Amino acid sequence: MDIPKGLDSVVMSVITKFAVRAKMGKEKYGTTLDRTDLGVLDWIQHAQEEAMDQILYLEKLKQTLVGKPKA
Questions:
Q1: Model-level pTM?
Q2: Are residues 31 and 42 in the same domain?
């Protein structure tokens, strides 16, 4: 894949992070997203779990910023 020239620093930063994450995932799990052993429902499950993690991280940051006590 050729990366177009002239991209701004924010886009380049995200591209670099995706590449690093893909390499880490390949090393950790021994596979890539090109794998074919998962079905549509499996991919949906993975996406849901990732989304739930994101909500937890955002809630933690929000509580940290606002200074709310733990529930």
A1: 0.72
A2: no
